[in-house]
Amino acid sequence: MYKVVIGLEIHAELNTNTKNFSYGKNDYTKIPNINVNEVDLGLPGILPTVNKEAIRKALKIALALNCNIADEVLFDRKNYYYPDLPKGYQITQSTKPFGLKGWLIYYLNNDKKTVYFHDIHLEEDTASLEGNNNYSLIDYNRAGIPLIEIVTEPCLYSADEAIAFLEYLRNLLVFCNVSEARSDKGQIRCDVNISLMNENDSVLGTKVEIKGINSFVGVRTAIEYEIKRQTEVLNSGNKIIQETRRIADDGKTYSMREKVDAVDYKYFVEPNIPPIKITDDYLAEIRKEIPELQYERIERYLNNGISLTDAQIITKDLDVSNYFDALESLVNNKESARKWLITFVLSILNKGEEKINNLFLTPAMLANMINKIDNGEISALNGKEVLNEAILTKKDPLLLIEEKGLKQIGNEEELLKYINEVIIENPKQVADYYAGKESLANFFVGMVMKKTNMQANPVITLKLVKEELDKRK
Amino acid sequence: MYSKMMIDDLRQELDENKITGEGLFKEANKLAHKHQEKYNSFVTILDNYNFEGTSNTLITNIPYALKDNFSTKGILTTGSSNILKDYIPPYDATVYKKLKEAGAILVGKTVLDELAMGGTGTTGHTGLVRNPWDESRMIGGSSSGSAAAVALGIVPFAIGSDTGDSVRKPACYGGVVGFKPTYGRISRYGLFAFASSLDHVGVISRSVRDAAIVTDILKGCDENDMTSLPDEDIKYIDNINLSVKGKKLFYLKDICDINYYPNKTPELEDILNNFKKVINNCQKIGIEVYEEEINKNLLNAIYPVYNTISCAEATSNNSNLTGISFGVREDGGNINQVIFNSRTKGFSELIKRRFVIGSYVLQRENQEKLFLNACRVRRLIVEKFNSLFTKYDGFIMPTSDAIAPKFNEKTDKLSDQYLILGNHLIIGNFGGYPSITIPSGFVDKMPIGVCITSAVENDALILNMAHEIEETMTYRGMIVGEEDV
């Protein structure tokens, strides 16, 4: 068995209105080449203009990932020829990445782990290429979209860790409202660096890079395949070749090129963008916009007595977590808030694949209902039914209770009227009850429920039934 | 008769309805065609009068020429390079847009040294440009056609670009005015980049006054160019007649001393004597002129530093020319081969030389020693001149150390000679300084000039001084030949 060491490079597209260095639109679409202007095409004479929103969002990530922040905005050119790179260079940051030396705590099941970051920088995306046998099609919609690159240290030791971290990172990007981070739209992509070493070795093994993986499932597949492949190579006494590989549809990785360091990108400072100072005030302003993040929320929930599993479920989605916080503040019994969110709300969302913010049922509506149920004003069964109908018909649940006359009957005088009727109508069961078949009390409760259209409070009814029968003995 | 006129005179003719804008355009168009075969100023001559002005300005309906490295929507723009010989841009350079809105009328796109890299006017893909004063001589470059068109009287002004001396040198060889304002004063958006940190837009005209009028139209902050300077609320033309009494200029002693030169040619002697005459004129109008000396190592470094930086930026800036989404695409077995073949066939030898040098100085193992050191020396030179500019309003030098060369005299292979007098114009690009050349006389029947350079943002001042010095001489409005169309 070898020890696995993994480092990740994550590219995430920022959800800005326009591109990183042009006024071209940043919008996901399947129609090719419509969000394109002369700058995105790299036509002669164009100049870059920096997108302030992109800078702000990139800095927000660097701050959220606890990095040391650069003192100024400075961009570099990375020079290479490729058909998806219209200018023949990519504007990126190598001299002064926005963030250096960051870290993030995440949970892998019940274990707390820390991932360390080498750097975080802002750059522009390339065009997308669609290859065919005899020709390639280029879609420039993607060219110039702001891309944040997050580079970890080699500090992940299994596919599970890598995936757990990636999920946290994706949530962080979404929580901070900097990226949609959707794999299906190609908004988050990964390069995996992976090496194997003997348990007692002090130096890392030879690193293999798998480039351009576009889903987390793909990351897992690539890591697992590489562990298997590299283990076999090492076990057979051969050496790992330092190379760049790609993952194919068959789940295997294939060599693209050897000697990864052979490419010289001839970086130099982009002369068309004068450096801009990053002030402490500006950073403080951005810091204020960072919401409470997933890890912090989990800690808070744990302190409030919620289990780690539930805390993790609730914090997977910022909106769910916010919904829960609102609900909890309005519900008298905190445990009820948790129970209803997990068993009721989340199961509805899962079924309908609906976003919680689109749900008709607001935390206030749900809290009202939960409090009524807890107070015995309405039965749990009827409550659930009303809530479901409210969601379906988009009607206020309180209105529905009135309309359907579902208010629970807890008034003893009113209940006694029904109980007396039931006792008179069922003389045989009364006789059996007196003969010692006490379980028949529930039969009378059932009959009362039927008469009241399920509105009778079953607990009070049972108590009254027993009292009334005893009285008549 | 209109070919001799400058902007003010033409304005008057137009305003008094002695000629229409279209009439003026037709005159210019006729002249452009007439001189084309002999001098080859233009890549494209426009034959239709096209007025798109949105406001009345001093240059409304005034014809002009534009260097063929400014993007013009719907009009062929080649950069005088084969790889762009069919390229029709889909967008306008800011400069072109401003001129259009000001109502100026484009007569044609002028020939340059391929992609503005060169100083001879011999490397454009449509052939060499000849000097109107002597067709056996060069006009210089890279704004060759623009200088020739103004010198020939086809248009009263033309737009060029200046990375080392590309507006001022050909203007000097053509006996006209060449002005490059402060870096960022005029937007570079739409100017095909040669070396971004050195590229300037410039104006070629037959008087300092006209240069000021046109710069007033062109200047201003542009949201498409982050290096463009904030707007000023002055007009240069309003400040052109101010008194220059008490202004202080300096020249570099060594460079203006014949004894400094190993080859003391009569031509050089004449140029330096002419310069002394100009200095005298300056003193007559109250400009104080002083001698300064600076470390010769710095001066010797100008040319290699320029080569290093400009080639490095050029190789990156021109990496978009692959034949993939625009430009001439050659066949190839795979995509890399397509790019390789397109670039191999699309560029001339000289351009490729520069790209190779640029690539070399940027390589990981060379970058620190070559490129970054060049950037440091550039900063040293700029700091030196910045400190001199705290004492002086500018420096004045002969624009060139020689008259326009004959075609067989000089090749444009990157020279290893430290031609300091020929290279001091580059200081203006290193520092982004405003710099202007005006004609100052003749040597061997060829025009020569003096160049004044000042601290950044001293555009109004430099135009003012140049205008007053121009007044002491008789070369304002000069064109070649007297014959009418």
Question: Explain this structure to me?
Answer:
The complex is a heterodimer of chains A (473) and B (485). Chain A folds into three domains: 3-285, no CATH class; 292-404, no CATH class; 412-472, Orthogonal Bundle (Arc Repressor Mutant, subunit A), CATH 1.10.10.410. In chain A, strand 6 and strand 7 (111-124) form a beta hairpin. Chain A contains 15 helices and 16 strands. In chain A, the strands form four sheets. In chain A, strands 2-6-7-10-1-11-12-13-14 form a nine-stranded mixed β-sheet. In chain A, strands 5-4-15 form a three-stranded antiparallel β-sheet, with no helix packed on it. A two-stranded antiparallel ribbon of chain A has the order 3-16. Chain A has 473 residues and is an alpha+beta fold. Chain B is an alpha/beta fold and 485 residues long. Chain B has one domain (1-485): Alpha-Beta Complex (Amidase signature (AS) enzymes), CATH 3.90.1300. Chain B has 14 helices and 13 strands. In chain B, strand 12 (435-443) and strand 13 (446-453) form a beta hairpin. In chain B, helix 6 packs antiparallel against helix 14 (459-471) and helix 8 crosses helix 11 (364-389). The longest helix of chain B has 26 residues, at 364-389. Chain B is globular, with a radius of gyration of 21 Å. The N and C termini of chain B lie close together (8 Å). The interface between A and B is large, with 30 and 45 residues.
Q: Concise description?
A:
The complex is a heterodimer of chains A (473) and B (485). By secondary structure, chain A is an alpha+beta fold. Helix content of chain A is 41%, strand content 20%.
Strands of the biggest beta sheet of chain B: in what spatial order? 1-3-2-6-8-7-12-13-11-9-10
> How would a crystallographer describe the biggest sheet of chain B?
11 strands, mixed
* Main β-sheet, spatial strand arrangement of chain A: 2-6-7-10-1-11-12-13-14
Order of helices and strands of chain B: HHEEHEEEHEHEEHEHEHHHHEHHEEH
- Low-pLDDT parts of chain A are none
The name CATH uses for the topology of chain B is Amidase signature (AS) enzymes
| Distance linking N and C termini of chain A | 79 Å
| Overall number of domains of chain A | 3
Mean pLDDT of chain A: 92
> What is the radius of gyration of chain A?
31 Å
Largest sheet of chain A: 9 strands, mixed
Summed up, the domain count of chain B is: 1
- What's the rounded overall pLDDT mean of chain B? 94
